[in-house]
Write a structure and sequence with these properties.
The complex is a heterotetramer, with 2 copies of chain A and 2 copies of chain B. Chain A has 11 helices and 8 strands. Chain A is α/β, with parallel strands linked by helices. In chain A, the strands form 2 sheets. Chain A has a 6-stranded mixed beta sheet, with helices on both faces. The longest helix of chain A has 26 residues. Chain A starts with 13 loop residues before the first strand and ends in a 16-residue tail after the last helix. Chain B is 39% helix and 19% strand. Chain B contains 12 helices and 14 strands. Chain B has a 7-stranded mixed beta sheet, sandwiched between helices. In chain B, α1 runs parallel beside α6, α8 packs across α12 and α9 packs across α10. The longest helix of chain B is centred in the N-terminal third of the chain and has 15 residues. The termini of chain B are far apart. Classes of the chains: A alpha/beta, B alpha/beta. Chains in contact: A-B, A-C, A-D, B-C, B-D, C-D. At the B-D interface, α4, α5 and α10 of B face α4, α5 and α10 of D. Bound molecules: thiamine diphosphate (TPP) (2 copies) and magnesium ion (MG) (2 copies). The site of one magnesium ion has 6 residues of chain C, from β5.
C-alpha cells in the first residue's frame, strides 16, 4: 500500500467519506489511450447503425442504446484490469464491444442470427463474452446486482485478485436485491464496485420522481459503505476514480458504490416518444459530449494527428458497415438450436 | 357494438371503475405521465390526478406489497406490472400476502386488489421477459386468475375484477393490445369463472385462452377446409376454471386438444388434461393432446421464438392426430 | 405545529438528523399508565404460560415469545393513538394482547382451536385484531414492511390522520422489500414508522454478523430519512420518542425508522438450544427488566400501592389461567372450516 | 448398509463433496454456527471453516443470487433455504438467473449450483411456510428438481446434484429429517431422472414422491389387507421425470393414482395424469385419480392441517375407486 504522488483532486466529486489516495492511476500508453477513444467511437457508430436498423424494422424486441454514456463504460473499464469481471443490465452494447465482442457477431445478435455473439438466443439485452470476463447483459432491472456480488465472491474465494464492476441504471437502485447485495458486500468484504450509470431517467421517470434522495451514491451511507459521485463526461475523471476504488477493493476487499452522472441521447428503448424531456435538455447534454471531450484532449496532447483521427474514424465506420453486412448475410439459427444450451 | 382496441378496453374499464368508486387507484411503473408502457392508462392521469394514478419506482415488491396493504386498509388498488415477468420479484407478496391474508386472519381481512399487465412471448424480448405465469399463480389458493383474449372480455373481466373483494390477477398480452374487436355498448360486466364457446363444432374440442385464442380460431378455419369442425372454447378465467363448459363439449366431440402458452410441465393444459381425462374418461375417443410453449427458455431470435410458441401448424397437427 | 414546553432530552438517543421538538407527549392518566403496566405484565404471564404449554407438547409449530421486549410494544403503542394501524412479524403476542385480543382467544389460537382469535387458521404467528387496527402477525421476514406502508398509504389517501407502526426484527432489515418500502415511504411521504425491535439476534445470528453497520437506524440515511435509535427498557423513553415521531408523521406525512434496543430472554422460537449466547449475557439483560423498571417508577410516583399492584398481578395471573382453561376446553375447528375464509 | 437419519445423509453428502472439491461451499441462514435450523449441516463449520460454511443475513435474493454469480464464476455453491417457502423472495433469481443463464449466453456459461432445504406442510407452520414448490420450479426449463424421500436418496441425489453442472433444486422435508433408513456403504451416486419402484404390485400403480412415499407405503399395507396389491413408484426426480417407469407399470396394472403434496391446480400429479393419460390411453382401465393437498391455504390447526394433506384415508379411497 505504497503511496506515491498524490492524485489530483477530482472536481465535483462527492462521497460518503473520504477516498483513500493511492496516487494517480498508472498512465496509459499512447496506444491504449487511442484504443479507448476508438472503442467509444465504435460504440457510438454501432449504436447509430442499430438505430437505423431498428427504425426500418430489422431489429425486433427491445434495443437500448448507449449514446452519450460512452465515457462511463470506457473510463471504468480502463480503471480496472482487463481480467476484472464485469456485468451489466440490458444497455450492454458498449460493455460488450469494449470487452472484445466483435462488431459483426454483436450486430448479428441484434438480428437474431446464428452467428450472433450468443447465437441469436439472447438478443440486444444479453451480450456475453465470458472469455473476456463480460458476464452479460441482463434484462431484469437490478437482477444482476447479486450476480456481480457472486462473481466478486468467487474471485475472493479463489484468490484471483479480481474486482467485479457491476453496472446498473439509476432506476435499479430501487430494487430490493440491490440492497441485500450492498449489505452482504460490506458485511463480507467482497470486492465489488456498483457503478450506477445515472442517466437521469428510469425509462420516463426522472430521478427525483423515483429516488429519495436524488444523490444515489448516498445509498451507501446506510451500510457505512463508500459511495462516490462523479461526472461521467470525462473519460479521465472516470478512469482515475474507478482505479482508486478498484485498488481499494483489491487491497482491502472493500466494496463501493460509484455513481456516475451521465445522459442518454436516445430514448429509453427504441419505441420511446420521449415526452418526458425537452429537446433543449438533450441538446444541452450533447454539448458536453464525452467523445468530443476526449477527442479534443488527445488532439491537444498531440497523441494523434487530426488526419490520423479521421482515418481512425473512417476505419470504425467501415467496420460497423461490415458488421451490419455480416449480420444481414448470416443465417438464422437452425430449429435444433432451440434445444441446445439449456443444460451443460 | 363498437370495435375498439384491447388496450382501450383496458383503459375504459379502469376509467369507468375509477369514476364509480373513489377508492380505486392505479399504481405501477410509467402508468401516469408516460400513459403506460403499453399505453393502457392513456389519459388516466389527466382525468384522475396524481393521487390516483401513481408512477412508481422500479420496486415491484415494494409497491405491489404496498397496494396489498392499502387494500387491507380499505382501498381498491389496481397494480400494473409492466410485464407479468417482473412480478417475479414480488412473488412472495402476491402468493403469500395477497393470497393467504384472508385465511390467516380467520376472515377478518379482505384484499380487494387487481394485479394486471402484459405477459407472454412472441415479441423477441427473451427468456426473462416472456413468462406466461397463469398456471403458477392459479396453483395458489386465494388467487383468482383471468386472461382476456378479446376487447369485450378485457373490459368486462377487468371491471368485475376491480369490484371483486379478492385478489384477481388479470393477465394481458402485448400482441393483443392493438387488436380491435367488438365491445358491447354501455355498462356491462363479464363474470369470472365462465368460459366462452367461441365457435361450435362437433368433431373436436379445442380449449385455449389468451392470445392463442386468435391462433386457434385461425387454425380452426384451416381445419374446416379439411372438413374438421372444431369447437373452440376460450377459458377466459383460469381460476376458477369452468370445467363444466369443457365437459359439455367433450361429451359431444369425444376429443380434446388443449392449447396454451404456458410451459408444458404442469401448465394450464396439464391441469385441464388431468381433470377432463378423469371426468370424461368414458367419453373420450382419443387421448387428450396438449399444444403448449416448448419446454425451453424463450429464445430471442424470431426464427426460434416462432417455433417455441404454440403455433398454427402444431395445433393443426395435434387436431389431426386426435381426429384421424 | 405549536411548540409548547421543550421535551426533556432522551439519554443515549442517536439519530440521522435532529428530531423536531413538539414538547413532551400528552401525559397519561393514572389509570392509563397502570393499564400499560398491566398489559406488559399480562404479556409476560401469557408468554410464560405459552412456554409451559409448548414444553409439554401442547402447542405445535413455531412460538416466538416476547419476554424482555414488553416496553417496546407498550411504549410505541402508548406513543401512538388507539386507532393507528399496527402490523408486525411473527413475534406478535404482545402487540395482539395490547391491542385488545382477549387472552382466551389468544391462547386458544396457540392450540389451534375454533375459538382462537383467527379461528385456529393462523396460529401463534398470525394474531389479528382488525377491529382495533392490529393487522397481524406475519411469518415471512420483512414481508409485512410493504403492507405497513400500504396501511399508511390508505390512511393518507382517505385522509384519516393515522400513522402506521410497522414492527420488525433486526434481522428483517436485510430483506429487499424493506428497502423498497423505505424509498417509497420517503419519496411519497407516507406516514409509516418502522419500529426495529433490535433484540440483538436474528435467530442465532448476532447483529454484527448480519448487518453492516450494527446501528440499524442508519439504514435511514440512504434515503435522507429520519432514523432514531433508543434504548427499549424504559417505557417512558419509548413512548416519548414514538409520540414525537408519530406527531411528525401526522403533521408532515414523514416516515421514520425507530430502532429500539431490546433483548429477548427466551430462545428464538421454542426449540432453540441458544448456544449462540451465554447465560451471563441473558442474566445481564434481565437485570434491567422493562417491567421492573416501570413497576419501580409507578410505585415511586405513588400511582399505585404495593398492595394494589400485587392484586393487579394476581388478577392477571388468574386471567391467564382462565385463558388457558378456555383454550383447553375449546373445540377444534370443524372440517368445513378448511374451505371458509378463502374468498370474501 | 447402515441405517441413518435423513438429515445425516444430507450432511454426509455435503461433507463428502466438500472434501472432494474445494470449490463446493455452503451458504444459508444459520447453516454455520447454529449447524442449520434443522441440523442438516451439523459439524460442517468445524470441518470446513467459515469461508466455506457461511451464515447469511436474511437476504434470500441477495445470497441466492450471489451464489448464482459465484457458480458462474467457477464455484459450486450449495444454497440452503431454511424452508423452500422462503425461496419465494428469491424467485426471480432462481427462475431467471439460474434457469436461463446458460441459454441466454448461448452456452457460454454454466451454473453448477444446488439449492436445497426443507419444504411442505404437516408441521403447523401455517400458510406462508408450508409451500411445496416442486411443480412450480419444474415448470421452468433450465432447472432440475429432485425430492428425495429416503436417506439413501437424500445422500445419493444430493451428491449427484452437487456434481451436476446445472442448477439442481433439492427439496427436502422436515418430517423426513429425523427418519432413519438404510444407506449403502461407501461412495455412491443416485442418478437424477430415475424413479424407483418401492413396491411391486399388479392391481394399481401409485406414483408419489417425497414425504408422501411414506404415507403411500403405509396405505399400501392397508390395501394389501383388502386384497389390493399396489405398485408404488417414488419419482425421486420431478424434472427430468421418469415417465418410462410409470408407463411400464401402468401397462401392467391399467390403473393409476397420483399422490403428492403439491396443490391440485397444475401440480405434479396434474402433469403426470396429463402425460400418462395420453401415453397410456389404451392401457387405462379407469380414470387417473389424484390425491394432493387440498386447494386451500395451509391451516395452522392440526385438526385442519391433517385433512389438508394427502393422507392415508384419501389415498385408500382413491385406490378403491379406481380398482373397484
Ligand atoms: C424488475 C423489472 N421491472 C421493470 C422492468 C422494465 N424496465 C426495463 S428498463 C426500465 C428502466 C430502468 O432505468 P434505469 O435503471 O435508470 O436504466 P437505464 O435504462 O436508464 O439505463 C424498466 C422500468 C424490468 N426490466 N425489470
Ligand atoms: C424470508 C424469510 N427467511 C427466513 C425466515 C426464517 N426466520 C424466521 S424468524 C428469523 C429470524 C428473524 O430475526 P429478527 O428479524 O431479528 O426477529 P426476531 O425473531 O429477533 O424478533 C428467520 C431467519 C423467514 N421467516 N422468512
Ligand atoms: Mg436511467
Ligand atoms: Mg432479532
Amino acid at each position: 500500500m505504497t503511496k506515491k504522488t498524490k492524485a489530483a483532486p477530482i472536481a465535483g466529486l462527492k462521497s460518503t467519506f473520504e477516498l483513500p489516495d493511492y496516487g494517480p492511476a498508472p498512465e496509459l500508453s499512447r496506444q491504449e489511450r487511442i484504443e479507448w477513444y476508438r472503442l467509444m467511437v465504435l460504440t457510438r457508430r454501432f449504436e447509430e447503425r442499430a438505430y437505423q436498423s431498428y427504425q426500418t424494422g430489422l431489429i425486433g424486441g427491445f434495443c437500448h442504446l448507449y449514446n452519450g454514456q460512452e465515457a462511463v463504460a470506457a473510463g471504468t473499464l480502463a480503471g480496472g484490469r482487463p481480467n476484472d469481471p464485469i456485468i451489466t443490465a440490458y444497455r450492454d452494447h458498449a460493455h460488450g464491444l469494449m470487452r472484445g465482442i466483435r462488431p459483426g457477431p454483436a450486430f448479428a445478435e441484434l438480428y437474431g442470427r446464428a452467428t450472433g455473439v450468443v447465437k441469436g438466443k439472447g438478443g440486444s439485452m444479453h451480450y456475453f463474452n465470458v472469455e473476456r470476463e463480460m458476464w452479460g447483459g441482463h434484462g431484469i432491472v437490478g437482477g444482476q446486482t447479486p450476480l456481480g456480488l457472486g462473481l466478486a465472491f468467487a474471485s475472493k474465494y479463489l484468490k484471483q485478485d479480481k474486482v467485479c464492476f457491476c453496472y446498473m441504471g439509476d432506476g435499479a437502485v430501487n430494487q430490493g436485491a440491490f440492497h441485500e447485495s450492498l449489505n452482504l458486500a460490506q458485511l463480507w468484504q467482497i470486492p465489488v464496485i456498483y457503478v450506477i450509470e445515472n442517466n437521469k431517467y428510469s425509462m420516463g421517470t426522472a430521478v427525483h420522481r423515483h429516488a429519495a434522495p436524488i444523490e444515489l451514491y448516498k445509498r451507501a451511507a446506510g451500510y457505512d459503505m463508500l459511495g462516490v459521485q462523479i461526472d461521467g463526461a470525462d473519460f479521465d475523471v472516470v478512469r482515475q476514480t474507478s482505479w482508486t476504488l478498484a485498488e481499494r477493493a483489491r487491497r482491502e476487499n472493500m466494496p463501493a458504490i460509484l455513481e456516475i452522472e451521465t445522459y442518454r441521447y436516445r430514448g429509453h428503448s427504441m419505441s420511446d416518444p420521449q415526452f418526458y424531456r425537452s429537446k433543449e435538455e438533450v441538446e444541452e447534454y450533447r454539448r458536453k459530449d464525452p467523445i468530443e471531450i476526449l477527442k479534443r484532449r488527445i488532439l491537444e496532447e498531440g497523441l494523434i494527428s487530426a488526419q490520423d483521427l479521421d482515418a481512425l474514424e473512417d476505419t470504425v465506420k467501415d467496420e460497423v458497415k461490415a458488421a451490419h453486412e455480416f449480420a444481414s448475410n448470416s443465417p438464422y439459427p437452425a430449429p435444433s438450436e432451440l434445444f441446445t444450451d439449456i443444460f451443460a | 357494438m363498437a370495435k375498439i382496441a384491447y388496450r382501450d378496453a383496458v383503459r375504459d374499464a379502469m376509467a369507468e371503475e375509477m369514476t364509480r368508486d373513489s377508492r380505486v387507484f392505479l399504481v405501477g411503473e410509467e402508468v401516469a405521465e408516460y400513459n403506460g408502457a403499453y399505453k393502457c392508462s392513456k389519459g388516466l392521469l389527466d382525468k384522475f390526478g396524481a393521487e390516483r394514478v401513481i408512477d412508481s419506482p422500479i420496486s415491484e415488491a415494494g409497491f405491489g406489497g404496498m397496494a396489498i396493504g392499502a387494500a387491507m386498509g380499505g382501498l381498491r388498488p389496481i397494480v400494473e406490472f409492466m410485464t407479468w415477468s417482473f412480478s417475479f420479484v414480488a412473488f412472495d407478496q402476491i402468493v403469500n400476502n395477497a393470497a393467504n391474508m384472508r385465511y390467516m386472519s380467520g376472515g377478518q381481512i379482505k384484499v380487494p386488489i387487481v394485479f394486471r399487465g402484459n405477459s407472454g412471448g412472441g415479441h423477441q424480448i427473451g427468456a426473462t421477459h416472456s413468462h406466461a405465469p397463469e398456471a403458477i399463480f392459479a396453483s395458489f389458493p386465494g388467487l383468482k386468475v383471468v386472461v382476456p383474449a378479446f376487447a369485450a372480455d378485457a373490459k368486462g373481466l377487468l371491471k368485475t375484477a376491480i369490484r371483486d373483494d379478492n385478489p384477481v390477477l388479470v393477465i394481458e398480452n402485448e400482441a393483443l393490445y392493438g387488436r380491435e374487436s367488438e365491445v358491447p355498448d354501455g355498462e356491462y360486466l363479464v363474470p369470472l369463472g365462465k368460459a366462452n364457446v367461441l365457435q361450435e363444432g362437433a368433431d373436436v374440442t379445442i380449449v385455449t385462452h389468451g392470445f392463442t385464442c386468435w391462433t386457434v380460431l385461425e387454425a380452426a378455419q384451416e381445419l374446416l377446409k379439411m372438413g374438421i369442425r372444431a369447437e373452440v372454447i376460450d377459458l377466459r378465467s383460469i381460476k376458477p376454471l369452468d370445467y363444466e363448459t369443457i365437459v359439455r363439449s367433450v361429451r359431444k366431440t369425444g376429443r380434446l386438444v388443449c392449447v396454451d402458452e404456458t410451459k408444458p410441465f404442469a401448465g394450464v393444459s396439464a391441469q385441464i388434461a388431468a381433470e377432463i381425462g378423469r371426468s370424461c374418461f368414458d367419453h373420450l375417443d382419443a387421448p387428450i393432446l396438449r399444444v403448449t410453449a416448448l419446454d425451453v427458455p424463450m429464445p430471442f431470435s424470431p426464427a426460434l421464438e416462432d417455433l417455441c410458441m404454440p403455433n398454427q401448424s402444431r395445433i393443426i397437427e395435434a387436431v389431426k392426430e386426435v381426429v384421424g
